[in-house]
Amino acid sequence: MCRRGFGTSIQIESLQELGGGTFNTAYLITFAGPLKMILRVAPPQTADTAWEDTFLMRSEHAMQPYFAPIAALMPKTLLVDFTHQLMDRDYMFQSFIEGERWDNAWDELKPEENDILWDQFGAIVKKIHEVRGEKFGLPRPGFQFGRWSQAVLDRLERTLQAAKDLGLNVTDLEGTLDMIRAHPEQLDEIQTPRLLHGDLWAFNLLIARRESGPAIVGVLDADRAWWGDPMADWTMFILAHAEPEAGHSHFWRAYGAREETRGAKFRKMVYDGMHAATALVYSVRTHDEDTVQRAYGTLREVAEAPPALIDP
To answer: CA 117, 131, 262, 304: dihedral to nearest 10 degrees?
Structure first.
């Protein structure tokens, strides 16, 4: 296959669709040379698109400059097109990073090798969370707020509506919302918006196996990035609820100690409810019954929170 333009020709040797994604479609394009790049194509925007999935690629493009502290680990945008003149979808070309997904290599690595990666992971997340913003929420008009409690309530209210549209039991989620509306002050102890990746775990980290030891070489898919409390990032929720790993201590050693104040415990409880609600809606749509039941369980725990965490 050959493409011509500006007096030159480009030979495409292969076009391979990449699996593992849950929203965009990604292709690995190999040119003669060899040169490789990634083409990511968003699905068409329809009335059925979930609120949190609307214009994800545009959000990622807007947030990319803020990831400057880890720019060496992130794909570079080569071309982006949101005009829909060539196709009725958003798409972008990105540089290719050679590596393998950490979750695919996890079981093949020695425990001490995974510990090295946990250390690196903690340091990377710390660099991301040190970036400061101006408003809380998503990088889109109508989704940005001056107070952290407003951003959390907006996210939960949108998720509540999505759950109602699916005909789900929302009693515990409504109880969580009522609790936050009555006690926003502990959320509003967070005064400075920080950069959150929104979807960072082993499946979005590329590693390289080297003689000196494994290394994280790529951080992918920042399309769910937003501004908020670092402890509200999806990474922190997974760390708290995943099966215990010895490597978790290495993550926290590199990242730094967690705050253990009463306000911090209240906020963690709220974030558990926020992420569980999101997981509930997503899992119902994808027919993941196990996650549905676990999400309901977490929402019940939040709704039945001890008064010592709530009352002044």
So the answer is: -80
pLDDT value of residue 4: 46
Beta bridge partners of 10: 3
Nearest-angstrom CA–CA distance, 156 and 165 = 14
- Considering the segment(s) 100-310 as one domain, its CATH architecture is Alpha-Beta Complex (3.90)
Instruction: Decide if 81 contacts 89 (C-beta within 8 A).
Output: no
> How far apart are alpha carbons 142 and 160 in whole angstroms?
18
The amino acid at 116: I
The amino acid that residue 149 corresponds to is S
CATH of domain 2-95: 3.30.200
Q: How far apart are CA 198 and CA 67, in angstroms?
A: 13
Give which of 229, 230, 236 is closest to 275, Cα–Cα: 236
Per-domain residue ranges for the chain?
A: 2-95, 100-310
pTM for this one? 0.90
Question: What amino acid occupies position 242?
Answer: A
pLDDT at 5: 44
